[in-house]
Amino acid sequence: MKKKKQKTESSKRYYGLITASVVMLLLVITSLGLDIYGSSKLYKNDSMLTAATSVQSSLEQMKHRLVNSRIALRDYGKLIDLQNSVDSSRKTGETAIKTVDALVDGGEVLDSEGNPTHIPPAPLGREHLSKIQTTLTKLNLTLEKMKFTTTASGTVSNPMPYDKVVANVQRLTEEAMGSANTLVSELKLLNVHQTKRIMMLQILGLILTILYFLVFMFFFMRQLLNIDRTAEKTHTEIEEIMSTVNEGLFLINQDLKISEQYSTRLEELLGQTHIAGRKLDDILKPIVSKKDLDTTVEFIDQLYNSRVKEKLIQDLNPLDYLEVQLTDENGNFFNRFLSFNFSRVYEGKTIKRVLVSIRDISDAVLLEQQLTRQQEQSSQQIELLTSIMHADPHMLRTFVNHAYHSTERINEILKRSGSEHADLHVKTQDIFREVHSLKGEASALDLDEFVALTHKFEDSIAALQAKKKLTGNDFLPLAVSLEKIIEQLDRVDTLIKHFSKITEAYHKNNQGQGEKSNASTESAQAKAASTYSSNNTDALSSYYSKYVNNVASRNGKSVLLETKGLEALSEDKRLSEKLSDIIVQLIRNAVVHGIEIPEQRKAAGKSQHGTIRVSFARSLKENKAELIIGDDGAGINYEGVRKQLVDISLCDQKTANNLSKRQLIALLFDSGFSTIANVNEDAGRGVGLDIIKERVETLKGRIKVDTKEGHHTRFIIHIPLRMG
After folding, report:
1. Taking the model in full, what pTM does it have?
2. Most confident residue range from 94-103, 163-172, 174-183, 480-489
3. Domain count, the chain
4. Number of other residues whose CB lies within 10 A of the CB of residue 166
């Protein structure tokens, strides 16, 4: 309704201009009509004047012929074409009579060029015309009676009557000529008056036309100026809207061609310029996949199909959510999230164009992602807090201290000098050992987020190790990953401290009232001291058992843990911390590589539950500690080790076949070698035994491997209690 009203108002603006143009046209037509009328009138007056002049001329001719023939007859006495002269005069008189009749009643006469033309009756000189008519009639009657005879010698038989006749004719002619002269004068005067009148009318018409033209031009120019001002105002308003609107707005036709006008924001959103006149699919091609682009073209084609309901297909919009990668003015890449909306534009009931609006939803998407991350972090914090609450405080604190030391060592390794590929490759191995060790301890404490971070760190290191040429810049991403691990470690440390404060406050609130006697206090302290070792032993057993269960569950196995002598290990806090990493790695190695899955154990005649035994003993006399970790699994498959060596191209088949069992065992302790092809949280990195070897060497210890294929594997480690 509004659109129809705007169209009516737009039409009304031109009514005045159309009316003025019609009046101007009528004035021009009137002026031309006056010109035509005046020219016709002058032409007729000129024809009448020509006719009157021809009568006057005819009378002159008649007079001169007869006078000349009379003189010739009198002077020579002979007839010299006398009869011809009379006949010619009579014919001239007859023509003159016809002309006079035409002047009186209107009729056809000859114009100045001898062409026949019709004239109206003369508006004046009726008396003169009547006299001329009478005189000419008498002249013709007189001339008809004039018949001459000549003798054989050519003389006129009776000349005297002719002389009288000629004199009479001359008199009549002079009378008619007088009337004719007066008629010609009056007609000339009439012609002059009419010419002046017509000229005045033409001048008046020209003046009116000029004046009206000036008025018309003034009105027209004012109307045009008003229209221009309105158009300019509208154009300015549109430009202001297009330059300030925060969306990318433009129109496309059925050929997907973009209109000349579009919002300024559009170029910024799409990262392109000079968009007008280009096709939408050409603009989207660099930032949209071919599949989405084809779907978009089909979607717009459906929008131009009047039989398809617009609301029903809006959910099929393929560009409702679009992530694009653009470059800024410095050539740096950045991501932007856009939402396209398509709406039909009707003209009457016909779909003329499609309006496309593009919104930048980056802030909303980033906010949603931030909220998601915060929710994930909150969930992780809860999970982390739950893990801390269920973990042994002493083991947790030990882990945190060890983790901080490990991150410091990783940072020192990253700063270590050396730019050659071999030096950098060794650097990756050293970092790998520390990270893998951290992951094992975190896994034992169920710190899943920490495990995930270290696992990603291992992926980054593995990618570097796969490169043929390493540079110092390749290690920059590792610094970022290390920072994330430290941040997570700080969160763990903060939560542990908060939880410890809450626990301490709780215990203080629950203490008995009153002061205990010194003896009672000493007795309580002694009792606590005596039970410390037992509690710590239980904590170690629980810690390792839980870790065994977690690793076994992830690998689809059923494993039991048996411990012996851990009370001796728990008494030595320093040694316990140093051996913890070794025990974790060997337990994980036993579960993943040693113990078979229940089906395989059953087929081999074994119990479905595998067993891992951890025993510790120390001898102050011999100044050494012995750690034995064994399993009743499949033992070391030497042929499997040989096959893996060939598969990863460490040696050829012949060389592998010639390797002894001792050499094959030694290779298991090399960095990067693993008998599991697929990498997971627990294995596949090839650094588990490498870490054990490095840790034992650091402690000045020795490793012995006792294995029997299909029966068991035991790692026997001897470590000096005092190093120096």
Report:
1. 0.48
2. 480-489
3. 4
4. 22
